[in-house]
Amino acid sequence: SKSKKNVVDPDTIIESYGADTARWFMLSDTPPERDIEWTDAGAAGAWRFTQRLWRMVNETAELGATGAHDATGLALRQTAHRSIAAVTDDLSNLRFNRAIARLYELANAVGAMLQKPERTPGEAAALREAVEALVLLFAPMMPHLAEECWQVLGHTVPVVDTPWPKADPALTALNEVTIAIQVNGKRRDEIVLKKDLPAAEVEAAVLALDSVQRALEGAKPKKVIVVPNRIVNLVR
Fold this sequence. Notes:
The chain is built from 10 helices and 4 strands. By secondary structure, it is an alpha+beta fold. It has a 4-stranded mixed sheet, with helices on one face. The radius of gyration is 23 Å and the shape is globular.
């Protein structure tokens, strides 16, 4: 506040880190309705992240032409499209810090793919798609960096004139669900399984868990109630 004379001069911040880094840190630190606590360490961390983005974009651009999408790149494509859906929703509801958290997650997934010594054509295609989505998604927070990255990726139409990315519903749908496990109505564990798995397979997977066997004390359950994609209740 001005009365306490603890205002941070934005000109000094911009001279040290650039406008994009300053904006990124301020939006990522706290929700918009709360006061921001400026720290030099936080600003420096944001600056390092912008450098990381720049490196990832350049590494992706150097890979050149990519192949067609296939199953090998599915996991990264799902992460990218779920990020598109989540960031779009967060920005629409002014949840800037949550949107930025999603972008960190996407950047980590891209970084993991870039670290692989070899990539299939499908993985290369997924990498290119994910990096382009990443650039478009962080553009509202870091417009200058986004425009530079977009040019490096070979685009001639500026980011500001490029349509916002759209999530593919087929890639945002969750393929796995977390199912709670109860024994005589008391929660004992949970298990992650493929969505819409047949009840018999769900039952077999649940009964194979050590925690369930301990709760049953080695006895066979009298009844197994499977609520699809939600819960399994075993009656002793």
